[in-house]
Fold this sequence. Notes:
The chain is an alpha/beta fold.
Amino acid sequence: MGTEVGELARSRFPGGVLVAAGYRQTEAALAQTAELDTDLTVPAIFEAAFLHGGVLIRADVLERVQAAEGQPSGWRLIEVKSSTKIKDVHLEDLAVQSEVILSAGLTLVSVSLMHINTGYLYRDGPIDLTELFAIQDLSEAVAQRRASVPERLATMNRMLLHTQPLTLSRTGIVIHPTSARSGNIAPKTNRRVGFITCRGRNTWSAN
């Protein structure tokens, strides 16, 4: 998400806490996320970090969902985009993110996409964030795609063991193992076709 859009989106969740550790500070980000997860006074976490099976993700928004008395709370995963509609790549992103979060042991109550509402008409005064952003529940669509994520991630991890360039036939991505280990994946075409990037040896990051 863009910086300005991201900041506005966070304002939609008062009291939310940002995981301050940067994208290269993996251990610190994971520790901060774990601490905020157990703090029941935190209503939302921004840029929460999770690592499972060699895949690192940073979630735009995790909103705590209060459960019935005596029951553990769950979370709503919200991906923030500056686009005005849902795209196929958004579902792919959410499928990977939700798979990693669930595998890390959290309970996801729902999975949603937060995007710009083109029907919002600004007049005067403060921006109405509840009108500026539309939040759509994509839980069912994401669950269908999530079923194939473990196999796809396993395939990508196996690619790191090869010494010759490999092509993902369904996506058109060419991976050179020596380049992949340094964080470079070269697309065969100029269009966006991938949904994760190699961040180093045996670690992938969801985009």
